[in-house]
Amino acid sequence: MGNIVYDSDLVEQSISDGFHVTRIGRNDLMSIQRWVCDPGGSFPEHSHPHQQIGYVYRGEMHVSIDGEQYVLGPGDTYIVEGNETHAGTNEGDEPAEGVDIFSPPLKDSDWIG
Fold first, then answer.
1. What pLDDT, in 10s, does the model give residues 43-64?
2. Is 71 helix (H, G, I), strand (E, B) or coil?
3. pTM of the model
4. Are 37 and 19 in contact (CB under 8 A)?
5. What's the Rg (C-alpha) of the chain?
6. Which end of the chain is more exposed for a tag (fewer CB within 10 A), N or C?
7. How far apart (Å, rounded) are the C-alpha atoms in residues 46 and 39?
8. What letter would DSSP give residue 94?
């Protein structure tokens, strides 16, 4: 049976300096989160066993994935294989925003811990 998650029920969490996530939903196979990176904000280099696919829909992010450097903007998609190191910084003047999908699903204790 399906489920509905209302935006008004969601809670944003500050993960690192200027980087915030909102867990949108999850099931047994995957989870999805919305993220916002403030100008000058970042998330530190880390890895996790989860497969990750993300999409940037606003702003610009400078991202490192497994040692390769990328600049991502609206409409760009990134794929991070399990256990690949990755990090990101917003060097722009406006917030960057996007979504991430993880499989297997993240648990609350999984984020950069």
1. 999 999 999 999 999 999 999 9
2. strand
3. 0.91
4. yes
5. 13
6. N
7. 20
8. S
Is residue 56 classed exposed, middle or buried when 0-12, 13-18 and 19+ CB atoms within 10 A define those classes? buried
Tell me the residue type at 42: S
pLDDT at 98 over 90: yes
Assigned token pair, 71: 């600049």
- Name the amino acid, one letter, at 97: E
pLDDT tens profile 7-25: 999 999 998 989 999 999 9
Cβ(60)–Cβ(90) below 8 Å: yes
Q: Is 112 left (phi over 0), alpha (psi -120 to 50) or beta?
A: left
Q: In whole numbers, what is the pLDDT of the chain averaged over residues?
A: 93
Residue 63 identity (one-letter amino acid): V
Token pair belonging to 30: 């995957």
Domains defined along the chain, listed by start: 12-107 (2.60.120.10)
Contact 68, 87 (CB under 8 A): no
Of the segments 10-19, 86-95, 103-112, which one has the largest average pLDDT value?
86-95
**Locate tokens 């690192």: which residue?**
16
